[in-house]
Amino acid sequence: MPDIISNHLRTLIFAAVTALMPVSLAAELSIARGSASTASSSQGSAPEWVYALRPGDSIASVVQTLLSENASRQRLLEHNGLASNTELSVGDTLRIPVNWLKRQPEPARVISVTGHVQHISGIDGRKLPLAKDSVVRVGDEILSGAGSATVGLADGSELRISPNSRLMFNRLTQYGKSGMVDTRLRLQRGEVHTRVQPIIEGGARFEIETPSAVAAVRGTVFTLRASATGSRVQVTEGVVDFGKPGMTRRIPAGYGASVSTVDSGSLEIRQLPPAPTITPLPPVLNRLPAELTWQANGFPTYRLDIFDQRSGTWVQSREVTDTHFDIAQLDNGSYEIHLAALDRQGIAGMPEIAELEVDLQARSPDLTAPADGESVNDDMPEFLWQLNGTNEVARVEISEDESFRRLVTTSEWAPENRALPSRPLSPGQYYWRVVTEAGGSSVATSSPRKLIVNGTLPPVRIISVNYLDNQVRVFWESVEQAVDYRLQLSEEPGFRNIIKEADISDTTAALRLIPGRRYFVRVKALSEGPLASRWGPGRELYLD
């Protein structure tokens, strides 16, 4: 509680100073040379880490587990002014120079990925799709196009990489089991949202460099953006030392800063817009879309981000020029909504954070057609139903058995109330049902119906016609599963007046025609089973 009060008091003092002296704001802010974590080195001594002994610890175990090979037990005792026979107990402290600690590269791990994001290897430059649980090592890069990613570091810090960003991992060092890290990243372009674990004083380091600035932190929540025109930082918790390398200024929570590459490159600091007030949402949303509203706070544009609480996935990001937004297309789960006003430079202000739980329930649909037990002559019958829920998608499932253990085919998932099967159905008896899904996890199923498919044979195409004297021979293509063919002859192309009809077992027939008259002929295939058939296109015949 004292730390919270102290931080709040410092922020109030800072705000008061900036209000009284807006022109000379830069003179009122402390200037740090480089990273804030190297302050102890300015005292003329190497950075040290103070370690408090835990149960089971001894000087020997500290040397074995924490120190590198060049740091011996004797050196540690001498550094702390202790005799060789000194016995230490739980809670006693040892001063350890940071450069004595074991150092090892500790890779980062991908927590979540949305959309297309590339992982560029620092070893051979290969580009591979970034995937959940991918390991990111020193020298690697993450290149996001339309996608985004969340990356976890060894100390529990978290990076949310926005679309159209390029982030390089220049150093990922952990000091043995001390918990201290040395993390140095380069944001070449784009935006990264960062939640950094508190930095252990005296050697630990966390820096993100851009082409025009550097951000060094002790443990904070901030957003850093880099572009061809400069760099911008937004601090929502803690403090960030930000500015051109070697000339950074401490930016507290509630303030933003920018370094421009267009002008002289001077550092501009401003107070962030206050957080807007979001109208409370119901604790659980059972229906989407739902309207999110908030009170205007004097700014025309707002930045709205939605994150999945469990995975950290960046679900949506929008700029809104109104005070309402329709929340839609969310799966069931728990989410965080971050809403912030954008100032005239486009820097997002202090965010208002609202939690949201979506729990959509699918409902069983009502089947419309075909009727139960109906016979159809089409091998691609259309299925119709009526949805009873909201925000649902549905598909048809067709099976050989009523328990649906032998699934034959399905339709595609879609928010429609009608569908065709994904492939033609052979003649026979089937069972069909409609499955609905809501929120990605809630599923409901209709009762099954029986369906008889008579099926169809393909239309028969006439290949050629040969004329010889008063006789015409017609040839047509063979159709699989056909046992006979039915031929019709008519004097008009609509075949409303049939002058001859015959069933033929071959794929050719000879016709005797009267010269000078026009005739039309067509053929269809016949089968022994329930297969129906369709007439092929008609062909004109004429004898001189």
TrEMBL record:
<protein>
    <submittedName>
        <fullName>FecR domain-containing protein</fullName>
    </submittedName>
</protein>
<feature type="domain" description="FecR protein">
    <location>
        <begin position="145"/>
        <end position="240"/>
    </location>
</feature>
<dbReference type="InterPro" id="IPR013783">
    <property type="entry name" value="Ig-like_fold"/>
</dbReference>
<dbReference type="InterPro" id="IPR036779">
    <property type="entry name" value="LysM_dom_sf"/>
</dbReference>
<dbReference type="InterPro" id="IPR006860">
    <property type="entry name" value="FecR"/>
</dbReference>
<dbReference type="Pfam" id="PF04773">
    <property type="entry name" value="FecR"/>
</dbReference>
<dbReference type="InterPro" id="IPR036116">
    <property type="entry name" value="FN3_sf"/>
</dbReference>
